[in-house]
Amino acid sequence: MSDIRVGLAADADRYRASDDLVWFQEVLPHPSELMLTGLRPDQRFAAEIDGADEATYPGIYGVYPLRLALAGGDGTPRQVPCAGLTWVGVHPDHRRRGVLSAMLRHHFEQVHAEPGTHVSALHASEPAIYGRHGYGLASLELEVKLSRGTTLTAPGLDEAAAEITTRMVTITEGDVPQRMLACHRDTAEAGAVVGALDYYERICLELPEHVRGKESWRVLFARRDGRDVGFAMFRREDKWEHARPAGELDVLAVFGEPAARLTLLRRLVDFDLVGTVKVRTVGSEDPVLAWAGGPRSTAAVETYDSLWVRLVDLPEALMARSWSAPCDVVVEVVDSAAPWNQGRWRIHADDSGAAEVERTDADADLQLGVQALGAAYLGGSNLLGLARAGLVTEARAGAARALWQALRADVAPSAAIGF
Ligand SMILES: CC(C)(COP(=O)(O)OP(=O)(O)OC[C@H]1O[C@@H](n2cnc3c(N)ncnc32)[C@H](O)[C@@H]1OP(=O)(O)O)[C@@H](O)C(=O)NCCC(=O)NCCS
Predict the structure, then answer these.
(1) From ligand 1's centre to the CA of 302, what distance in Å?
(2) What is the rounded distance in angstroms from the CA atom of residue 64 to the CA atom of residue 49?
(3) Which atom of ligand 1 is found nearest the CA of 122?
(4) Do 153 and 291 fall into the same domain?
(5) Which domain holds residue 401?
(6) Mean pLDDT in each 10-residue stretch from start to end of the chain (419 residues)?
(7) Which residues are near ligand 1 (CB < 6 Å)?
(8) Are residues 71 and 185 in the same domain?
(9) Which of 202, 249, 338, 407 has the fewest C-beta atoms under 10 angstroms from its C-beta?
(10) Whose CA is closest to 121, among 340, 317, 279?
């Protein structure tokens, strides 16, 4: 709608009041700037409409500058800049009138104008919202419940794991954000998002209301040769059943190379007074299920959507990734929210793992919405499967298979930490 204007949100109190209204959680008695830790003033945006309530904005959104780890041709992930869309909310009085659409249009224009950043990514509150705005579901995450004492078997990693020690600290200890950042940046697997320092400062911000009746969040660091090679964030909740200890240990995420993750998980399933260990942010092909002996060796496994990815600058985004096989395919892309992507593109990947992506007048081999390319961007969402499901249209038989073979990664993308 033409009367919606989107720009910088200069008023932190109004921004924060909008968020409180949208999410209807307890309003905490802390200054707005504290509540907005990690969200930089120049990354807070709002929609304005004449005559709207002045205590809140009609709509808000924010951006965390992140790095997205993509599968590299030689197996080493490469990290590319990524705009992490967050703090999205529209005042209940102004919903279903195009405020989100206007804010996303603004976001795509901002990202498109920013040198070096070609993709936007998010975690969705509801799965039906973002597909129509060009985001594709690029990775899945599991929540795995393990019983205390679960045996994690990995003979090929035992030697490496034996060289790793673990040490528990409280999340509020001085240098934890710096250590988290350095370790996450150095060990991120494809599919992960890595934040800047203020992102980890936000994670480590502990307000009294976050604790209430529970212990502080802890960080378990895995160390080898005096260096952090992994970490897990967790906390325990005291619980007793029939006079027996049945505490619950909630693990937000486990990061690091596989031997470090194995060592961390072995320690996490071995805490006294705990009955179950809930491990979140587990990638769909994470080894934890294999270590535990398969899904039925766990107490429960649930699957959720993890990262939604949107190609904002389609050719640059596609050229920034590695390609697994040669391909030469013309795609006809539908993208009404970022019209500069609309139309036909020739994707020509060669043996070296690089691709050229350029405009063409040639006949299309495949017709797809930009969200299908976002879904396949991390190499995890099967484009051929989408074609079989009728969500991508093949004009030339075999084109979906050829493009998918070039896009696919060896291992499904890891789950991305929440933001
Ligand atoms: C989700 C939300 C931001 C949508 O804002 P909005 O201004 O009402 O959205 P728009 O009017 O721009 O809608 C754009 C399109 O998305 C659709 N849409 C909006 N919200 C939707 C939802 N929750 N589920 C499914 N579709 C939705 C609209 O129907 C519309 O479709 P159309 O283009 O086919 O007509 C708003 O409802 C909200 O603040 N919800 C609570 C907080 C939240 O979930 N935020 C998202 C955090 S990830």
Answers:
(1) 26
(2) 25
(3) 48
(4) yes
(5) 314-407
(6) 89 98 95 97 98 96 98 88 98 97 98 97 96 97 97 98 98 96 97 98 95 94 97 97 96 97 98 97 97 95 97 98 96 97 98 96 98 97 94 95 96 97
(7) 22, 88-90, 95-101, 124-126, 128-129, 132
(8) no
(9) 202
(10) 317
